[in-house]
From TrEMBL, chain A:
It comes from the Bacteria. Its EC number is 1.9.3.1. The chain crosses the membrane at residues 38-61, 92-118, 139-161, 181-202, 222-248, 280-296, 308-329, 341-361, 373-395, 407-430, 450-471, 491-515. This is Cytochrome c oxidase, subunit I.
Automatic annotation (TrEMBL), chain B:
InterPro entries: CcO_II, CcO_II-like_C, Copper_CuA, Cupredoxin, Cyt_c_oxidase_su2, Cyt_c_oxidase_su2_TM_sf. It is a multi-pass membrane protein. This is cytochrome-c oxidase. It is found in: Membrane. GO terms for biological process: ATP synthesis coupled electron transport. Keywords: Copper, Electron transport, Membrane, Metal-binding, Respiratory chain, Translocase, Transmembrane, Transmembrane helix, Transport. GO terms for cellular component: membrane. Its EC number is 7.1.1.9. It catalyses: 4 Fe(II)-[cytochrome c] + O2 + 8 H(+)(in) = 4 Fe(III)-[cytochrome c] + 2 H2O + 4 H(+)(out).
Length: 592, 284
C-alpha cells in the first residue's frame, strides 16, 4: 500500500545516479546540482541574502518614518538618488515599500520555507533518496535567481522600482513606469519556480515514502510542506493569470483592469487575493510544521493532538481559498458577500486556535532543553498568539472599516507572516543546521540573537497597533500633515529604534551562520536525540542520503519519553524495530 | 556535543519566562496607556456608535485571551525547565473537542454581532427620513472634490465635452436646468461641507486610480474606484472640521492627499446651500 514507495524510490534512483556516486566536478556538485540537499541550501542561502536586501529597505523606511523631513547627509553620500538633498525622495520611498514587501513575501519567506526546508526535509524525513524529479528541482531553483534579477533590475531602469505596493493594484500599476513590467515578469517567473517545486513535493510525498511510512506517521513538517504545495498548486496560477493580464494591459493595449477601456480594477483584486490570502498560509503553514517538530524534540514530549494538528492544517488550507474577500471589505463589495467572507474568515481562526492550544499542551509538563531552536519555537507561539488575536478585530468587517489599511493591519500581518514565519525559519535553521552542514552553531550567540530578535520584534510591531488605533494610514511617506494623528512621533521613534535593534541583531546571526558553517564543532548524527528519519542519516547526508539501505519505519515520529522506555532512554526513533528498543541506547546507535 | 548542565538549562528557561512575562505586562500596560494617548479619535457620527462598542468588546475579549495564553505559556516554560521527566501525554479527545467547540461558539457570537453592525452601516437612509443630504465625492491624484445637487436636490447631467478645469471641472451640462444650482467644492482649496444631524449619502467616484475615503472621526472608510460608484451613509453629530485621509496607495503624492470635512449646524447648512448655489467650480 503506502509502502510501495520504496521500490519506486530505488527504481527512480537507479536510472539517474544511484547512490554510489562518482566524483563530480565542482559545478555539477554545488552549482547545477540535482541533489535535493544542495538545492535546499542554495534556496536557503539565496533567500537569506534577499532577506538582507528586504531588511535593509525596511531600515531605510524606518529612517524616513521615524524622523520625516530630517536631512541625512551620510545617506545622501551613499545613495544620492534615493536621498536627494539629504531627504528621502518619496518616489524612492514607495519603491522601497513595494520591493520590501515583494522581497520579504516572495523572495525570502516563501522561498526559504517552500524552497529551502521543503527540499531539505521532505526526502530525508520520508526516507527517500531524492525528489521525484531531480532535474525539475534544479530548474526550479535556477528560475529563482532569474526572477531576482528581473525584480532588482527595476531599481536601475528609468523611473525606478514600481511604487504601487506588493499588491500592485491597477489602475495605479497601469501607470507606473517600466519597473512595474519587470516586477510582473519577475513574479511570473517565480511562480513558475514554485509550481515546479510544488509538483515535486506532492509527487515525492505521495510516492516515495519508505516502507512503514504511512501518511499517519508523517512528521508534521512534511504534512505542512505537502499541504502547502497543494495550496500553491491552486493559488499560484491565479496570480500568474493576473500578472499576464496586467502585462498585456501595460504593453499590449488590452484593458482587462482599466475602466476607460471597459475593464474592471476590482477584477485584479479578486484574482490577486485569491492567490494572496492562501499565500499567507503558504508562508505560515510550513513554519507551524517546523515549530511543532522542534517543540516536541526539544521538549522531549510527543506533539499534543497529532490528528488535530493534521486536521487543522487541512482545514486551514481549504478555508484559505474562501476568505480572500476580507482584503476587500472597503472596496465597495456587496454587504451580503462581505458577510460570507466575515464568516469564513472567523472560521479559519478555529483551526488556528486549535494549533495554538496544542502547542501549549505540548509545552505543558514537558522537560524542555532550551536550545536556540527551542527558544525560537517558544517565541513563535507567543508571536502567533499576539498576531492571531488582532486578526479577530480585522476579520470583523464592522471594526475593519476603521482599521482597514491602517498600521493596525501592518502590525497584525507582521506578527503573523513576518515575525512568526521568520521565527519558524530560525527555529528550523538552528535545529537542522547540524544536519545540513555537519557542524553545530554557536549556542551562546544564538541565544543573544534570540533575545534581541524577540524584544526587537515586539518593540517594532506591537506599537504599530497603536498607530492604527490613532488612525495612521499605512503606506504614507510622512504623517506630519495630519492633526488627528496627534502625537504619533513618539511611537514612530520607538518603532524605528526597535527596528534598528532588530536589524542589527541579524548581523550576529549572519556571523554565527557563516562562522559555524566552516568552523563550528563537528556534529553527530543525531545531536538533539530526535526521532525523525533525517537524524538516521550521516551529518551531512551524502548524495542519495542513506549510506546503506533506506530506513524502515516502525512508529509515529513523536515517541518521546514513553512510559515503556528503558531507564535513561527518553525517545524511540522511527527507524528502530521493536525488539531493538530495549538495547538500543540513547539514539538507537546500538541498533544501526 | 550539546552539553548543557541542568542549572544552565533552568537559567535559560527562566530567561524565556521572563521575556514572555515582560511581553505580557508591557503589552497590557502599553495598551492601557495607549487608550489615553493614541486611541480612536473622538467619535462624531451617530451611525458608527455600534462600531466603537464592538471594538471595545473585542479589545476586552482578546485582552483576556492574551493574558491567559501568554501567562500559560510563561508558566509552562518555567515548569518545563524544572520537570524531572516529560509527561507522555499526546491525546485527549474530550479536551481537544472542548476547546475547538468553545472557540467556535465565541467566534460565532462575534460573527452575529458584527454582521448586524456591518449591515446597519450599509443600509441607505429610508426615503421617508426627513433630514437627508447627498454629496458626490471624487478622488483624484491628489485631492478630493465634491458636488452637491443644490437647493433643488437634483444633480444635473454631466458630459466630458463641457469640462473646463478652471470653471467647470465636473462638466455640468449648462443646458440641464437641474444642474444650474449644483455646487462644486474643490477640496484642495476649502473643506467639503456636511450638515450635522442629517443622514448623508456619500457617492464615491474616482477620476484616475483607486483612492480610499477615510474620515477617522466619522469612522467611515470606503474605496473610490474608477468606473464604479460606491455609496456610504453617515450621520455626523457634532459641528466642526475633520480631516480626510486617503487610505489606498494612489501614487507618490498619496501621503499628502489630505482633505477636510466641515460639519455645519442645520441653519448654517441651509444658508450655505443658498449662498453657493450655482458655483460650478470657478476659482474661489
Amino acid at each position: 500500500m503506502a509502502h510501495g514507495g520504496t521500490q519506486a524510490a530505488l527504481a527512480g534512483h537507479a536510472t539517474h545516479a544511484g547512490h554510489h556516486h562518482e566524483p563530480q566536478s565542482f559545478w555539477r556538485r554545488y552549482i547545477f546540482s540535482t541533489d535535493h540537499k544542495i538545492i535546499a541550501i542554495q534556496y536557503l542561502l539565496t533567500s537569506l541574502v534577499m532577506a538582507a536586501v528586504g531588511g535593509f529597505l525596511a531600515m531605510l523606511m524606518r529612517v524616513q518614518l521615524g524622523w520625516p523631513g530630517r536631512q541625512w547627509p551620510l545617506l545622501e553620500a551613499l545613495m544620492p538618488n534615493a536621498f536627494k538633498g539629504g531627504r528621502m525622495d518619496p518616489d524612492f520611498y514607495y519603491g522601497a515599500v513595494t520591493m520590501h514587501g515583494t522581497i520579504m513575501v516572495f523572495f525570502f519567506l516563501t522561498t526559504a520555507l517552500s524552497g529551502g526546508f521543503a527540499n531539505f526535509l521532505i526526502p530525508l524525513q520520508i526516507g527517500a533518496r531524492d525528489m521525484a524529479f531531480p532535474v525539475l528541482n534544479m530548474i526550479s531553483y535556477w528560475l529563482f535567481p532569474v526572477a531576482i534579477v528581473f525584480a532588482l533590475a527595476s531599481f536601475f531602469v528609468q523611473g525606478g522600482a514600481p511604487g504601487s505596493g506588493w499588491t500592485a493594484y491597477p489602475p495605479l500599476s497601469d501607470r507606473e513606469p517600466l519597473g512595474q513590467t519587470l516586477w510582473l515578469i519577475s513574479v511570473f517567473i517565480l511562480m513558475l519556480a514554485f509550481l515546479a517545486g510544488g509538483i515535486n513535493y506532492i509527487t515525492t510525498t505521495l510516492n516515495l515514502r519508505t516502507k512503514g511510512m504511512s501518511m499517519s506517521r508523517l512528521p508534521l513538517t512534511v504534512w505542512t510542506l505537502f499541504v502547502t504545495a497543494l495550496v500553491g498548486l491552486f493559488a499560484f496560477p491565479a496570480l500568474m493569470a493576473a500578472a499576464l493580464m496586467l502585462i498585456f494591459d501595460r504593453v499590449g493595449g488590452t484593458h482587462f483592469f482599466d475602466p476607460a477601456g471597459g475593464g474592471d480594477p476590482i477584477l485584479w483584486q479578486h484574482l490577486f487575493w485569491f492567490f494572496g490570502h492562501p499565500e499567507v498560509y503558504i508562508v505560515i503553514l510550513p513554519a507551524m510544521g517546523i515549530v511543532s517538530e522542534v517543540l516536541a524534540t526539544h521538549a522531549r514530549k510527543p506533539v499534543f493532538g497529532y490528528r488535530y494538528m493534521v486536521g487543522s492544517t487541512l482545514a486551514i488550507a481549504g478555508l484559505s481559498f474562501i476568505v480572500w474577500g476580507h482584503h476587500m471589505f472597503a472596496s465597495g463589495m456587496s454587504p451580503t458577500l462581505g458577510s460570507m467572507f466575515m464568516a469564513t474568515t472567523l472560521a479559519i481562526a478555529i483551526p488556528s486556535a486549535v494549533k495554538t492550544f496544542n502547542w501549549l499542551a505540548t509545552i505543558y509538563r514537558s522537560k524542555m532543553r532550551f536550545t536556540t531552536a527551542a527558544l525560537y519555537a517558544v517565541g513563535f507561539v507567543s508571536l502567533f498568539i499576539t498576531g492571531g488575536l488582532t486578526g479577530i478585530i480585522l476579520g470583523n468587517p464592522s471594526t475593519d472599516l476603521y482599521f482597514h489599511d491602517t498600521y493596525f493591519v501592518v502590525g497584525h500581518f507582521h506578527f503573523i507572516m513576518g515575525a512568526a514565519a521568520l521565527f519558524g525559519v530560525f527555529a528550523g535553521l538552528y535545529h537542522w543546521f547540524p544536519k545540513m552542514f555537519g557542524r553545530m552553531m554557536n549556542e551562546r550567540l544564538g541565544k543573544i540573537h534570540f533575545w534581541l530578535t524577540f524584544l526587537g520584534i515586539y518593540g517594532t510591531f506591537f506599537p504599530m497597533h497603536f498607530l492604527g488605533t490613532a488612525g495612521m494610514p499605512r503606506r504614507i511617506y510622512s504623517w506630519e500633515a495630519y492633526q488627528f494623528l496627534g502625537d504619533v512621533a513618539t511611537l514612530n521613534h520607538i518603532i524605528s529604534i526597535s527596528a534598528f535593534v532588530l536589524g542589527a541583531a541579524q548581523l550576529i546571526f549572519a556571523f554565527n551562520l557563516f562562522y559555524s558553517m566552516f568552523r563550528g564543532p563537528k556534529a553527530e548524527r543525531n545531536p538533539w536525540q530526535a526521532n525523525t528519519l533525517e537524524w538516521w542519516a550521516p551529518s551531512p547526508p551524502p548524495h542519495g542520503n542513506w549510506d546503506e539501505a533506506e530506513p524502515v519505519v516502525y512508529r509515529w515520529p513523536y515517541e518521546y519519553s514513553p512510559k515503556y522506555a528503558p531507564e535513561g532512554v527518553d525517545h524511540i526513533p522511527q527507524w528502530l524495530p521493536e525488539p531493538a528498543v530495549a538495547t538500543a541506547g540513547r539514539d538507537g546507535a546500538g541498533a544501526r | 556535543m550539546h552539553q548543557v548542565t541542568e542549572r544552565e538549562n533552568r537559567r535559560a528557561g527562566a530567561v524565556v519566562t521572563l521575556l514572555i512575562g515582560l511581553v505580557l505586562v508591557a503589552g497590557v500596560a502599553s495598551t492601557v496607556y495607549a487608550t489615553k494617548r493614541w486611541w480612536l479619535p473622538p467619535l462624531v457620527s451617530a451611525t458608527a456608535a455600534p462600531i466603537d462598542r464592538m471594538f471595545n468588546l473585542l479589545m476586552v475579549s482578546i485582552g483576556i485571551v492574551f493574558v491567559l495564553t501568554q501567562g500559560a505559556l510563561a508558566w509552562f516554560v518555567w515548569k518545563a525547565a524544572r520537570n524531572p521527566r516529560a509527561l507522555y501525554w499526546h491525546e485527549n479527545k474530550r479536551l481537544e473537542s472542548t476547546w475547538t467547540v468553545a472557540t467556535a461558539v465565541i467566534l460565532t457570537a462575534f460573527i452575529v454581532m458584527g454582521y448586524q453592525i456591518w449591515l446597519s452601516v450599509h443600509t441607505p437612509p429610508a426615503a421617508a427620513a426627513e433630514k437627508t443630504a447627498v454629496v458626490e465625492v471624487w478622488g483624484q491624484q491628489f485631492y478630493w472634490t465634491a458636488r452637491y445637487p443644490g437647493p433643488d436636490g437634483q444633480f444635473g447631467k454631466t458630459d466630458p465635452q463641457y469640462v473646463d478645469f478652471k470653471s467647470n471641472p465636473f462638466g455640468i451640462d449648462p443646458n440641464d436646468p437641474a444642474g444650474q444650482d449644483d455646487i462644486v467644492v474643490d477640496g484642495s482649496k476649502g473643506p467639503i461641507v456636511m450638515p450635522a444631524g442629517y443622514k448623508v449619502t456619500v457617492q464615491l467616484h474616482s477620476r484616475d486610480v483607486i483612492h480610499s475615503f477615510f474620515v477617522p472621526q466619522l469612522r467611515v472608510k470606503l474605496d473610490a474606484v474608477p468606473g464604479q460608484v460606491n455609496e456610504l451613509y453617515v450621520e455626523p453629530t457634532e459641528p466642526g472640521t475633520y480631516e480626510i485621509a486617503c487610505a489606498e496607495l494612489c501614487g507618490v503624492g498619496h501621503f499628502a492627499m489630505r482633505g477636510e470635512i466641515q460639519v455645519l449646524p442645520e441653519s448654517e447648512w441651509q444658508s450655505w446651500l443658498a449662498e453657493h448655489a450655482g458655483e460650478h467650480g470657478a476659482a474661489q
